[in-house]
Structure formats: structure tokens, C-alpha cells
Amino acid sequence: NGLSDRVANLRVDLRDKTRLPPAGTFDLVVSNPPYFDAARGAVAQTESRGLARSDEACTLPQLCAAAGRLLRYGGSFCLVHRPDRLADVLEELRRVRLEPKRLRLVQNTAQAAPKLLLLEAKKGGRPGLAVLPPLLLRDPDGGESAELSRIYFRDKE
């Protein structure tokens, strides 16, 4: 994508501080973590599916702590998660001094319940959460929404 001079992808265990870059290294940390809390219910039958879908290998508190450590003051942590975990996410972010700043729910249609949330938090940010209009994936006719087309540059094809 032409961003190699500005983007770093790390393949390390974020629970191991000795393998992570120094604290305050990054302006932006992005995560699409496993959504389900393994302590609250059944975990998938296969190990690979369980690791992909539940936080049995890396919990939400561990993820937020690593993001908080890696970010410089004023840096952003962006993540996608499930709406039913919103209270947990907000609690953990604030616990590690990441202030939730922007929240956007993702819905298939205007009438559908949200299925995902997109959240940005700032390290050292002042209180105040902006709740943005939902991102609708489908238009009233059932086709892909114009906004989703713009996001994926399909409007340029």
C-alpha cells in the first residue's frame, strides 16, 4: 500500500513486554481481537477456532494494557469489537488511561441491531465520547451502501 516507511507490523506476543518495542513508540495501535470472553461461556471445540474467537490466549485487559504501553501520549488505539462487550472495552481502556473518544456502530441496515463497534481511544485524552452515526453496510434495496463502497474504494472501479 505504499506505507512501508510509516507502518510497522510486529509479530510478537503482546503479553511479553520484553519482546515489545519501548513504551511510547507508536502513534497508532490497531486491533481486531478475538471477541468472546472465554471466562463467560463455551469456547469453540477446536483449538484454532477457540483461539481465533475467544480471548483465552490474550484477554481484553492484556490487549488494552499493551496498547496503552506502546502508545505515545496523544496516540490513538483503534479497535473493532462486539457491542455486547462495549462496557468491558470502555472499562479496560480507562483503566490503562486510554480515553474513549469516538464510537461508531456497524449495522447491516438502519433497522438491524448493531453487529460490531469501531472505537478510537486516545492516550491521555480528556473525557468526552463522540458517538457517530452508524455505518450501514446495506442500502434500503439490499445492495452495498454507498459509504461502504467509498471505504473499500469500489466507487473508483
Description of the structure:
With 157 residues, this protein is an alpha/beta fold. The chain is 22% helix and 25% strand. The protein contains 4 helices and 6 strands. Strands 1, 2, 3, 4, 5 and 6 form a 6-stranded mixed beta sheet that branches. A hairpin with an 8-residue loop joins strand 3 (98-107) and strand 4 (116-123). Helix 2 (60-70) packs across helix 3 (86-95). It is globular, with a radius of gyration of 17 Å.
Strand content: 15-25%
Using the alpha-carbon principal axes, give the shape: globular
The residue-averaged pLDDT reads 88
Total helical elements: 4
Radius of gyration: 17 Å
Order of helices and strands: EHHEHEEEEH
Q: State the share of residues found in helices, binned by percent.
A: 10-25%
Write the layout of secondary structure elements.
Elements lengths: L25 E6 L15 H7 L6 H11 E11 L4 H10 L2 E10 L8 E8 L6 E2 L3 E2 L9 H6 L6
Parallel strand pairs: 1-2, 3-5, 3-6
Antiparallel strand pairs: 2-4, 3-4
